[in-house]
Amino acid sequence: MLDRWPDGSIRWALLDWQFGADSGDAPYRLRVGPTTEPRPVPHNPVRVERKDESLRLAAGPIAITLQ
């Protein structure tokens, strides 16, 4: 889960899986249960800083400034 609403429901989810090309119209179902592991907090989360007319985004060794 990438983000949750204040009530705890899922707001954003990133899904990644492999499937066979010969599967035709096979249905896919997403099931979330009590054994689902929470997403770990990133080591270098994105930091956002506003200063006057500029916006700086930084994550680990990478930073960009938008003016």
Q: Which structural class should the secondary elements be placed in?
A: mainly beta
Rg on CA atoms, Å: 19 Å
Major pleated sheet = 3 strands, antiparallel
Low-confidence stretches: none
Output mean pLDDT. 81
Main β-sheet, spatial strand arrangement: 3-4-5
Give the helices and strands as they follow along the chain: EEEEE
Distance separating the two termini? 32 Å
Q: Name the shape in a single word.
A: elongated
How big a fraction of the residues is strand? 25-35%
Count of helices? Answer: 0
The overall strand count is 5
Helix content: under 10%
Structure description:
By secondary structure, this protein is mainly beta. It has no helices and 5 strands. It has a 3-stranded antiparallel sheet with strand order 3-4-5, with no helix packed on it. A two-stranded antiparallel sheet has the order 1-2. Strand 4 and strand 5 form a beta hairpin. The radius of gyration is 19 Å and the shape is elongated. It starts with a strand and ends with a strand. The model has no long low-confidence stretch (mean pLDDT 81).
